[in-house]
Amino acid sequence: SEAPEDTKTATFGLGCFWGPDATFGAVDGVVRTRVGYAGGTKSDPSYEVLGDHTEVVQIEYDPEQLSFSELLERAFSEHDPYQQPQKRQYQNVVFTETADQHDQLLTFLRERDLDRDRIATRLESLDRFHLAAASHQKFNLRGKRWITDVFTEANYSGEAIRESPAAAKLNAHVAGHDVSVPFIDQSSDPRSRR
Ligand code: MHO
């Protein structure tokens, strides 16, 4: 089957973006991942000249398979919402992009009994996502030249590797993540029996 067309995006800052690029890549229903910078005002940020931006992962997901709440579940299991790194580059940020995502975030915080007065995670609405350079995309996979060389030989550009659903899964696997299915016992997931 082909990659789903009606995808949505979710954007999170969870420290150095190489990590969440891989953890979210493993999640069933995540179609593509890309890393970049958001949450600041500087135009054209780069890794070297970041300005007031934060490293973020942008997750493109199939809403038929995965909800924003499930992504929040994962994002909050990846950080302590009551601690925040001093360096803005690595801060925890949950961006919402639509009114629906914002509602799901409020519901999530309420159901999780998160103390809104103590929560340190930045909760912001996404203004703009700035893509990071190709050398930062699928960083774990890029450490395996014998795999990326095959993409290159098949005429994938850096951009095509970044946008490849297969590369997102390989990147996750190389980083040591196995397919993760939110809220479903993996032994009962038909995929693991194929
Ligand atoms: N320079 C740090 C973090 C990289 S992450 C893209 C390191 O080498 O681990 O900020």
Mean pLDDT: 93
Structural class: alpha+beta
Strand content: 15-25%
Instruction: Give the CATH superfamily.
Output: Peptide methionine sulphoxide reductase MsrA
Structure explained in plain terms:
This protein is about 30% helix and about 20% strand. With about 190 residues, the protein is an alpha+beta fold. The protein has a single domain, classed as Peptide methionine sulphoxide reductase MsrA (Peptide Methionine Sulfoxide Reductase, Chain A, 2-Layer Sandwich). A six-stranded mixed beta sheet has the order 5-4-1-3-2-6. Strand 4 (about 90-95), helix 3 (about 100-110) and strand 5 (about 120-125) form a beta-alpha-beta unit. Mean pLDDT is about 95; it is low at about 185-190. The structure holds S-oxymethionine. S-oxymethionine binds near residues 16, 18, 55 and 136.
Question: What secondary-structure arrangement, pairings included, does this model have?
Answer:
Blueprint: E1 8-14, H1 18-25, E2 30-38, E3 54-61, H2 68-77, E4 92-96, H3 99-111, E5 122-125, E6 130-131, H4 139-142, H5 145-153, H6 158-162, H7 165-174
Parallel strand pairs: 4-5
Antiparallel strand pairs: 1-3, 1-4, 2-3, 2-6
Helix pairs in contact: 1-7, 2-3
This protein binds S-oxymethionine (MHO).
What distinguishing features does this structure have?
binds S-oxymethionine; 7 helices; single chain; alpha+beta; Peptide Methionine Sulfoxide Reductase, Chain A; 30% helix
TL;DR?
This protein has 7 helices and 6 strands.
